[in-house]
Amino acid sequence: VQPAPAGLNAGAKHVGRDPREVLAEVFGYDAFRGDQDAIVRHVAAGGDAVVLMPTGGGKSMCYQVPSLVREGTGVVLSPLVALMHDQVAALRLAGVRAASLNSSMSMDERREVERAYVQGELDLLYLAPERLSSPGTIDLLARGHIALFAIDEAHCVSQWGHDFRPDYLRLGALAERWPDVPRIALTATATPETHREITERLHLGEAKHFVSNFDRPNIRYRIESKQNARAQLTQFVRGEHAGEAGIVYALSRKRVEQTAKALRDAGVDAVAYHAGLPSHVRLDAQTRFLREDGVVVVATIAFGMGIDKPDVRFVAHIDLPKSIEGYYQETGRAGRDGAPSEAWLAYGLQDVVQQRQMIESGDGDQVTRTNQTRHLNQMLALCETVECRRAFLLRYFGQETEPGTGAAPTACGNCDVCLNPPKLWDATVPAQMLLSTILRTHRERGRTYAAGQHIDVLCGVASERATQMKLDELTTWGIGKEWSVAQWRGVVRHMLAVGLIEARGEWGVLEPTQDAKPVLSGEMPVRMREEVLARAATGGAGRR
Ligand code: ADP
Ligand code: ZN
Residue 408 carries which DSSP code? Predict the structure, then answer.
């Protein structure tokens, strides 16, 4: 290797070298994984690339190694400041000259990074996409030598995606400003729609596309109906994964803290993690999780990005995720070492009602709401499906065929549906009963009620609220006694999930949708998983 000339690239030790050697020498890995080799060589040679690779697949190497073997600085656009810090710190430990520019830096720090960049003393420079809206940043970039642009979390450019960020729309302009600099866009979201939008909006029409196999065969997917979330979770964590490391996701900070406490009370070594905790508490939770064995982190979705622990044995969700993309990303943190792991989710009627309401009362515009509803419906379809969960997921991510065999994904043998096929139950009669109760209540009262009241009416539950609201005077009082309250909750949940009814307004009052007509008239049967009812009837907390 020739000594680097002074000035541009002074000190860059790897320009023109074989990527495999750099991988070994700088990062300590023997070989590239999956598509990495092809991607690295393509980008190192100056080609554009679109990379769809699941969480944990090793996306960073795909731009870090080419940044080192090409002249100049690799400019990485990444939306999460915390993640940037971690990456930069890790790179520096490996001897790579990396830095970031972000709003939390002092003027002096910023000047120093800018100077180093302009003088060619940086291998990698991390930037938040919004910085590109300032002409100052564009001028700065123009004064240095750019090896490549890496656009991380590229799905953020998709308006239909689950994590749209308007700043990403500007990134298409990089192609015009720097037509000769290779660009690589990376994401773990692989729906065909998102893929198309990334290609279009980032002007990557000429790019080579690398779509990895999204299957994570060592993860067992399990989705069950929620009866007593705490008891079910404790059984899952303590009963089935005692002493193992795992992550439990909940939607709110309060739920995180309550759940962590409940697990601790049950003898599990659980710590809470959410953005509202002081940073030293969060850091402590994270450090314990990484360094010690068998720590369970109960967290909001703020936890996990950039955390790289190979032996996470389970990921549990006690609240319904808002999209399949989110669910897959979160569950993907299990089993990076390839050993058997579980993704477990409990969801119930309340989840469906709550999320529908959150969307309705959210501050987004109509487009946003439609979009969120679509994502929620897809998540619910996954929950209610009676086919293999994995086949469903892979199809969702556009993986129509099994790599190697070319066959469509079928039964995987490693999900709850495959291991314990649910029986279909003809729920047409209770479905019709619920629909007519809603309609009759409307006629008799000039309004309708939320799920809980309707279930009281159907079962004839003389609760305080039922008496107070004189529900027992309705003509439908007690007509559904044949089924238990828990069974009715299952029916209502299923109907909400598949869009036969809606929960509207602040109170979540039930209303039939257009789709309910053929059900009422008897033209369309309602089939749901019998397992929901069977387990509801026995209290539901049992393991299989
Ligand atoms: P992603 O961004 O796709 O979720 P990362 O880039 O964070 O994945 O990589 C996941 C883990 O895999 C990291 O610990 C990374 O160091 C490791 N890794 C990446 N490439 C290789 C490789 N070729 N050999 C071994 N480990 C690798
Ligand atoms: Zn399966």
Answer: P
pLDDT in tens, 28-73: 999 999 999 999 999 999 999 999 998 878 999 999 999 999 999 9
Mutation test residue for ligand 1: of 37, 61, 80, 337, the one with most atoms within 8 Å of CB: 61
Ligand 1: which residue has its CA nearest to atom 5?
58
Ligand with smallest separation from the Cα of 223: 2
Which helix (H) or strand (E) segment holds residue 150: the answer is: strand 146-151
Got the DSSP string for 346-362? EE-HHHHHHHHHHHHHS
Over residues 5-17, mean pLDDT: 59
How far is the centre of ligand 1, averaged over its atoms, from the C-alpha of 341 (Å)?
A: 18
> What confidence tens digit (pLDDT) does each residue in 203-220 have?
999 999 999 888 999 999
Separation in Å, CA 504 to CA 17, 379, 495? 62, 19, 14
Pairing label, strands 424-426, 527-529: antiparallel
pLDDT value at 403 more than 70: no
- Please list, in sequence order, all residues whose beta carbon lies within 8 angstroms of the beta carbon of residue 39, skipping any fewer than 6 positions away: 49, 51, 62, 184, 210
**Pocket mutation for ligand 1, best pick of 32, 33, 39 (most atoms within 8 Å of C-beta):** 33
Cβ < 6 A, ligand 1 pocket? 29, 32-33, 36, 53, 55-61, 308
Provide the ipTM: 0.98
Q: What is the pLDDT of residue 26?
A: 94
